[in-house]
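The data layer described in this paper is built around a simple, fixed record for each protein. We quote a single record here, exactly as it is kept in our systems:
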Amino acid sequence: MSCYHKFIYDLQLEYVDWEVSTLFVGTFNPGWASCTNNNSEWFYGRTARNSFWNSLSLLHEGYKIESGKSEWLDFCRRNELAVTDILACIDNADENNPIHQTKICKFKDDDLAQFDVTINNIPQILNEHPKIRQVCITRQTLTEFWEDIFQDLLTYIDAHNNISLIKLRSPSRGAISGVEGDHSLFVANRWIQQGYQLF
């Protein structure tokens, strides 16, 4: 029994009706109904635990946007942004296995390394959206598992010098250690320091 991505029908940017300059690639959002802690409406949508949308809107528009898929879509349209995730499915996950249930529903990326996975085809997205100039991943380091998962993307970007890959500090509040003041503003400022470009 597999665990498909909660927003699998948006992974190839099916929602995009604008030109994209910046693509954010996250990891995975489980589609199991039994993940009762997953109240996400869309990518990076667990806003009580994640400053992604607030940090990004502070960078682009100077204020924090309201939560919700329609607001996030409008924001992306205005700023030529798109979001997706690298994993489409956890193939050998069993929703009735309590160990699998815990590992997948805790939203800890490194817990996914024990599973077989289906990878979203990010190079295909880049081919279909040739105006993309930067690809951002919200991980500063890649363990061996994640390096393998991102390998096709890394190879594609190496062969296309018109696209930058930027590894950004995680906007997760789990990475809040050492942060003083507003977490969203801290993350936004760090992203600029790490090379994030406003187009």
Remarks:
- Residues 3-193 form a domain with the Uracil-DNA Glycosylase, subunit E fold (CATH 3.40.470.10).
